[in-house]
Hints:
Layout: H1 2-19, H2 28-37, H3 39-71
Amino acid sequence: xxxxxxxxxxxxxxxxxxxxxxxxxxxxICTKTAQQLGEGPAEGMNTGILxxxxxxxxxxxxxxxxxxxxxxx
Length: 73
């Protein structure tokens, strides 16, 4: 029961993060570059930024999950 609840919460958080319009934000330098590129390339740039941000979060999530499994009582 606890494992399914944990998995449900993780899935809901992931869906929530993917549907947030604020997730498509950039630093000021990237914003200026994207404005000069136009609409299509700017969307590709946003997608690339999110793609590159996924790996560190996935690694941290995996480490947190392993730590949780090893230290629960």
